[in-house]
């Protein structure tokens, strides 16, 4: 079971399309909060992740990265996160999103 904050984060994250990424900070700011770490916690507890869920319920938490573009935190490991992002056409170099500004989704 998830709390209201987490559900709010998941709803926002569903707006990020395939081939784009967002940051923990951007998600928090889109929700009107500075609780960046709480966003990370919500992503870690995501019951609707791409490896668990398909279709409309899926929440793509693998599309959330640190504000500097580095891959950060993923329940299934950073190697898997990079693999999922690459499958969506996002280039990863040295555990960091290449062309960060170009693929950054703005709420």
Explain the overall architecture.
With about 110 residues, this protein is mainly α. It has helices spanning about 5-15, 25-30, 35-45, 80-85, 100-105; strands at about 20-25, 65, 90-95, 95. The protein has a single domain (about 5-105), classed as Orthogonal Bundle (Arc Repressor Mutant, subunit A). The strands form 2 sheets. The protein has a two-stranded parallel sheet with strand order 1-2. A two-stranded antiparallel sheet has the order 3-4. A hairpin with a 2-residue loop joins strand 3 (about 90-95) and strand 4. Helix 1 crosses helix 3 (about 35-45). It is globular and about 35 Å long. It starts with a helix and ends with a helix.
Brief characterization of the structure:
This protein has helices spanning about 5-15, 25-30, 35-45, 80-85, 100-105; strands spanning about 20-25, 65, 90-95, 95. The protein is mainly alpha-helical.
